[in-house]
Amino acid sequence: MSTLSTLVNVAEAPEPELLRDAESYARLLEHVREAVLAGVPGPRSPRSVVSASWGRSLAAHVDPDDGEAPFVHDTDVLAALREAHPLAPVLPVLRQMLVSIADDAEHLVRRYHTWTCAAAPVRDPETGALLGSIDVSGPLRTVHPAMISLVTATAQLAEGQLRAQLAVRDERLRRVNMPHLEALRGRPGALLSAAGRVLAAQACTLPSTVDVRRGGGTIALPDGRLATAEPLTEGYLLRLPPATGAHRARLHLEYLADGAHSTTVDGREVPLTLRHAEILTLLALHPKGLSAERLALQLYGETGNPVTVRAEIHRLRSQLGASVVQTRPYRLAADVDADFLVARTALRSGAAADVLRVFRGPLLPESEAPAIREERETLTAQVRQVALNSGDPAVLWSFWETACGVDDFAVLDALLRTLPPADPRRAAVTAHRARLA
Predict the structure, then answer these.
(1) Which residue among 135, 226, 243, 317 is least crowded, i.e. fewest CB within 10 A of its CB?
(2) Do residues 173 and 105 touch, judged by C-beta distance below 8 A?
C-alpha cells in the first residue's frame, strides 16, 4: 500500500491554524509534502481530501517541482467544451460574486506553495452528480477568514440557479408532453424527465425518481410492478398495468390546534410543510377540485403564480402519492377525515358539544394564505358564538382553553355566570380575568 493511500486518519479542519498564522502553516505543509513524496513519516498527515488530490495529481504525471500539467484538451475544442458544460449558464453570476475577492493550498506543486485556495462543490440538482467546484486561489498573504464562506455561498447560489432553471424546464416538459399522458384516458401512467424524475402522474403511486435506461423499455419498480418507458422528444411516457382492486386511501387531517398540524395517510403520519397543509385544506374544502390559477389566488392572493402551485402540487404528490392528490383539476381522491370539516358539520347542526370536541384551536394558525385566513376567522367566530350561546360551562371552558378564547372577556364573563360558586374552575377564571383587567 502506498504512503499516499495510507494517510486517511487525519485532521480535517486546518482553517483556524491557517488563519491564525498563515506563514507558519505554509512551512508546516512544506515539511508534510516533502515527507509524503519521500515516503517517510512527517510532522503530521495531510487532510484526506488533500492526500487524495495529491494522489490524483501524481497519477496524472504532474511534476511536483515543475508544475506543468499535461494537456487534456486542445485549445481549439476548449471553448466548445466550456459552452456545453452544465455550469455555463450560471458563470456570469459566479463571476459577479467572486470578482471582488479574485482581484484583491495545500498544493502539490512547489511554485504554488505561497498560494492558498478555498473551494466548494457544485452538484447537479437533478442527478446529484458533481458538476465542478467554485475555487478562489491567491497569495497566502491575502487569505481572508470570509473566503471559505464566500465560495460556499457562491456554490449554493449556483445550485439555486440550476434548480430554478430545472423547474422552468420541468414546467415546459410537462406542458409539451401532457397530451401523451392525457391520451392514456385515465389509465395508470406518468411523465418522466430524461433522468427519470416523475413530472406528472395519474392513477398510480410512484417514487419521485424511476430508474429508466437510455432508450426506455421495461422497468421494474421498487414495489415489483413492471412498467414500460416510451421515449418522447424529451423524457419518457411511463405506462403501468391497470391496478387490480384499487385501494382508496384514507386521509386524516388534524389542523384545528394551537400546536403543530398532523397529516396521516392510511394510518401513516406524513410530515408536511405549512404550504402543503394549506393546499390539502383548500382541496378538502373544494371537493370538486381547483385549477392552478384558483389555487394560486387562494394561497398567495393577486400575486399568486400558477407555476409555483404546480411545483408544490408535484412535491405534495410525491409525498402522499398520485392516488391521493389528482390533477386536472387538482382534487383529493381519498376518503377525507378532517377536523375542520367535522367542525363545519357540527356547526350546521348546532351541536355545541360536538363542535368543541374537535375544535382544539384555530385552523393552521401560522398560515397567512388569504383563503385559509378567511376560513380560520370565520370558523373561529362561529365556534365562539356557539359557545357563548350554549350557556354550558363545559362548552365555554373548552373554548376558553384554546388560544382563541383564553383572553376573551365575553367568554370569561359567561364562565363566571354559569360556573357554580363551589366549582374550582371559577377561581382560575376569576384570577385570569383580574390579570387582564
Answers:
(1) 226
(2) no
Are 281 and 364 in contact by the 8 Å Cβ rule? The answer is yes
| Strand ranges in 321-389 using DSSP code E only, listed in sequence order | 325-326, 331-332, 335-338
Contacts of 389 (CB under 8 A, 6+ apart): 352
Q: By three-state DSSP, how is residue 377 classified?
A: helix
pLDDT tens column, 376-423: 999 999 999 999 999 999 999 999 999 999 999 999 999 999 999 998
- Mean pLDDT over 336-348 rounds to 94
Exposed, middle or buried by CB within 10 Å (0-12, 13-18, 19+), for 18?
A: buried
Q: Which three cell numbers stand for residue 259?
A: 400546536
Inter-axis angle of helices 393-400 and 409-418, nearest 10: 150
H/E/C letters for each residue in 31-43? HHHHHHHHCCCCC
Comparing 3-148 with 252-390, is the CATH topology the same?
no
Strand order across the 226-231 sheet: 198-202, 189-192, 236-239, 226-231, 217-220
Question: Which of 221-235, 277-291, 295-309 has the least mean pLDDT?
Answer: 221-235
Pick the CATH number of 3-148 from 1.10.150, 3.30.450, 3.90.1530, 1.10.287: 3.30.450
Q: Which of 254, 273, 285, 270 is nearest to 361 (CA)?
A: 254
φ and ψ of 369, to 5 deg: -65, 130
Q: Are 363 and 372 in contact (CB under 8 A)?
A: yes
215/232 Cα distance (integer angstroms): 10
Phi and psi torsions of 253, nearest 5°: -120, 125
Alpha-carbon span 174 to 166, nearest angstrom: 12
Q: Which amino acid is at 296?
A: A
Domain 252-390: give its CATH architecture: Orthogonal Bundle (1.10)
The contacts of residue 6 (CB under 8 Å, 6+ apart) are none
Q: Give me the residue spans of the domains in the chain.
A: 3-148, 183-239, 252-390
pTM recorded for the entire structure: 0.49
